[in-house]
What we know:
Chain A contains 16 helices and 15 strands. Chain A is an alpha+beta fold. In chain A, the strands form three sheets. In chain A, strands 3-6-7-10-1-11-12-13-14 form a nine-stranded mixed sheet. A three-stranded antiparallel sheet of chain A has the order 5-4-15, with no helix packed on it. In chain A, helix 1 (9-15) packs across helix 4 (243-262) and helix 15 packs across helix 16 (486-496). In chain B, strand 2 (84-85) and strand 3 (88-92) form a beta hairpin.
Amino acid sequence: MTTPTLMDYDEALARFEPVLGIETHIELGTASKMFCGCPTTFGADPNTQVCPVCLGLPGALPVTNHAAIEGIIKIGLALNCEIVEWCRFARKNYFYPDMPKNFQISQYDEPLCVDGHLEVEVEGETYRIEIERVHMEEDTGKSLHVGGATGRIQGAEFSLVDYNRAGIPLVEIVTKPIPATGERAPLVARAYATELRELVRSLGVSDVRMEEGSMRCDVNVSLMPRGAAEWGTRTETKNVNSLRSVERSVRSEIERQAGVLADGGRIVQETRHFHEDTGRTTAGRSKEEAQDYRYFPEPDLVPMAPAREWVEELRATLPELPAARRRRVQAEWGLSDLELRDVVNAGAVDLIEATVARGADAGAARKWWMNELSRRATAQGVELAELPITPEQVARVQAMVAAGELNDKLARQVFEGVLAGEGGPDEVVAARGLKVVSDEGELAAVIDEVIAGNAAVADKVRAGKVAAAGALVGAVMKATRGQADAARARELILEKLGAS
Amino acid sequence: MSAITRDEVAHLARLSRLALGDDELDHLAAQLDQIISAVARVQEVAAQDIPPTSHALPLTNVYRADEVRPSLPPDRALAAAPAAQDDRFRVPRILDEEA
Lengths: 500, 99
């Protein structure tokens, strides 16, 4: 094993042109499995969601889940694919124990959806990613490797397999080769995965959680010398499980392949594994001996011939897709491209929209979610949507601000209270006694006390040093625990000191 | 000309994880050649308007509703496993693979 020499990214891109290809597996969120009635709940105890069909016991026969086919057709339509008029399942034969029956039911030369595309945007430029195919298959079991390298049991060398995941409906989405992305290749790969995730999520057919494995990317990368006509040999980095890793794995693989090629080496067509900790890939299974899965039409399942009427019915049920939605909210909320990008990246579109739907104006809704609440989400290390506050509650706080009952400072205290589990906005306001002091008499009394207690400062203001009034306003706000209207307090102070 | 070569039979055997000796390969290659040749005669009578078929029944679109049905209890699921541990099927480890 020689130590691979990595080439600096900029130099690699100066000399080579990357070509990408991305295969994405998405588990559909059906209640039952693809070919049997076992449940699909994530995180169940091992081998509690298995039956003779998904265990491949003799005599068991699969029957296709209608909702899964509906789901994949929706994905195909949303990706601008053609839904074929007739296709079959195929058996993919192999001997890895993640499938108990020694084959996986998949589709081979007759995928259900073909020839689509998805547009993604990177740094203001649009890339049209061509979709080769979208096909239906079943997920595999999960193996836990024990012993040897893991060292958990000294000298042991075996795997423990849980087949709960085996047979869960799995959609595979394969791009055509993506050329001409240059130095943006890692960003384009990430943008594609992000857009695909948003798209599928909007369809409601999968929860597309990369951290739970319901969306997984295999990223193909090859390099060719700049100006060359022929693509280089590609590697396939398997099971890249976060959007960030998609980007990093492409970058890492470009640096590695460029290093190998520059040293006069050749790229081996192989599967590689991405390591989150190092950000690097290591060699896996070699594809030198071409995988021969001996595909043949699945004899236990009859062909699918989705009626055109059904396909059109499903097309009519498609929701507003993310790209169209972004264009709409950008116009409705009057956002610049940059502001829109920030809102999208923060995962705030749904939240802001729901807040607006409950009566808040778009500017205020965006302000709360993007500033105060984003800051708190970041501090807690959670997604914005995971904060324990609802759009309805944010809209309620904003309604109180709009009515003059709260100022922004008090509103932030309400958010703090809601997030701390002290109840809804009204409860927090009541419990913490938060309300703007609008009673002029009460405010005037506080101001008199503050002036009396800060005679030296007051004298400066009287002498015409208006800027010094800030200290008095601060003291008033402190005395009222932030509940005074600061601007009004300032006016009254200046009035009383004859400096207005 | 033979319909299948001895090398192809050896390749198929490897893919199928069948350990065949030289004698067996000679024997099976000849037999498979005869079988394939016999089946190939069907192609002679198959006209252009007869599509290849993969299924005996003239059916399409057989689906089930997305309804959950009871699974096996784990002990029964694992009953036929050659080895089990921690409610999981225990299998020989395969190197260089990650699920």
